[in-house]
Amino acid sequence: MKITDDMLFEHAAEARNIWLSTLPPQDEIPVISYSKSFERKMRKLIKEQRRTPRTNQILRYMKQTAAAVLVIAVFTFGGLMTVDAYRAKVVEFVVQVFDKFTQFTFYSNHPEADIDDSALPEISFGYIPEGMIEIENSITSTGSHFIRYENGSNGFFQLTQSIVADGQYGAIIDTEDSDYEVGTINGSEAFFNTKNGQSTIIWINGDIVFNLFGTPDLNELKLIAEKIKIFSD
Q1: What was the pLDDT predicted at 95?
Q2: Which of 15, 130, 202, 233 counts the most CB atoms within 10 A of its CB?
Q3: Which has more confidence, 47 or 147?
Q4: If DSSP codes are grouped into helix, strand and coil, which group holds residue 124?
Q5: Helix (H/G/I), strand (E/B), else coil: 75
Q6: Is it the case that residue 35 has pLDDT exceeding 90?
Q7: What sections of the chain are H helices per DSSP?
Q8: What would the CATH number be for the domain defined by 53-231?
Q9: Distance CA 94, CA 142 (A)
Q10: How far is the C-alpha of 38 from the C-alpha of 227, rounded, in Å?
Q11: Residue 87 and residue 110: Cα distance in Å, rounded?
């Protein structure tokens, strides 16, 4: 027997009813919990679908060029420095922006230097948010200096100092759906990022990379960074 389009059309409704009758009742369908990452992607997809094709094209172009813009901005700030400060600058960095994170790669202008020949300078905090007390102050297995303060109410900030004396040092920051900008801390290039109530500041002083992270709002975290006193030998 030859199946025709008319026969399919005639029995389509009956086939639909048979298929629907095999489905479980609505109250027996299990509730599925999706990961936060999946939900963020869905919200992002919905936003993109609500935009015009022209807007989506512009946003894609901006994302593709974001890394270049940040790198240009970083080196522009370097160009605004005085000649003496520029000569003293021994570390450059490159920023690469991806969908979910931003990668920083720091390069020493003196890669032949041995890390054992460099020493992390002593520092002190000129400003500490009220209620914060020091709970850790140590040297990590990689030779970085780690300091952490907490206030007992889930508030904290932590500073990591790392020497870029062996040619290269890297850091990765979660920048998916975050607020970020490029600026300066006490005349040095700096990157600022805020997401989910926590902020990060990364900047360079000589051959030292500073990474400050915590729950204080970005303005207060900037104040902590700007008030850090560095004691040179």
Answers
A1: 75
A2: 202
A3: 147
A4: strand
A5: helix
A6: no
A7: 5-21, 36-50, 53-79, 83-88, 218-226
A8: 3.30.200.100
A9: 22
A10: 40
A11: 13
Burial string for 72-110 (b: 16+ CB within 10 Å, else e) reads ebbeeeeeebeeeeeeebbbbbebebeeeebebebebee
pLDDT at residue 34 is higher than 70: no
Looking at the chain, the whole-number percentage of residues with pLDDT higher than 70 is 63
- From residue 90, how far is each of 15, 61, 164 by CA, in Å? 74, 33, 9
Q: What is the tens place of the pLDDT at every residue in 185-214?
A: 999 889 999 999 999 999 988 888 999 999
Nearest to 68 by CA among 93, 95, 92: 95
* Residue whose token pair is 């026969």: 7
For the chain, the domains span 53-231
**pTM for the full predicted model:** 0.59
Q: Are 129 and 216 in contact (CB under 8 A)?
A: yes
Return the pLDDT at 1: 62
If one counts every other C-beta atom within 10 angstroms of the C-beta of residue 190, the result is 22
13 residue type, one letter: A
Q: What is the per-residue pLDDT for 102?
A: 83
